[in-house]
Amino acid sequence: MKINIACLSHFGNDIPLPSYATPDSSGMDLHAALEHDISILAGGRAIIPCGFQIEIPQGYEAQIRPRSGLAAKHGITVLNTPGTIDADYRGEVKVILINLGSEEFFIRRGDRIAQMVIAPVSKVVITRVETLGETSRGEGGFGHTGT
Known about the structure:
There is one protein chain. 5% of the residues lie in helices and 38% in strands. The chain is mainly beta. The protein has a single domain (4-120), classed as Deoxyuridine 5'-Triphosphate Nucleotidohydrolase, Chain A, CATH 2.70.40.10. A five-stranded antiparallel β-sheet has the order 2-3-11-6-8, with no helix packed on it. A four-stranded antiparallel β-sheet has the order 1-5-9-7. The longest helix has 7 residues, at 68-74. The chain is globular, with a radius of gyration of 19 Å. The mean pLDDT is 95.
């Protein structure tokens, strides 16, 4: 699949385009296109620009997901996981990061901050009914199967 990307002026030649780290990676690494380093205090959040716009084909979306290393080592994650970029959005791609760790965390220009997965979108038709079909699970949820 071909994806068009337009780089914005603050992207610069030092920021890599989104890319797969390994041949079997599901997500492409996204990099911070910051003008200046920023800090995210413990419990704080920040919107990080990625410096590009993307043209996603109709019938697909881009999902913005956390990087496992940042989450495990520092408690940095994507606040609205997964973030969704719709096919008709043409603004700059930005990532909402939150610091769930106990220490201030610094984001520097070019840092890998998240990953982007391109995924198909299923459209459905909603039908109002009086009752739903029964299953063996029924209304069980939120830990109903035990620890």
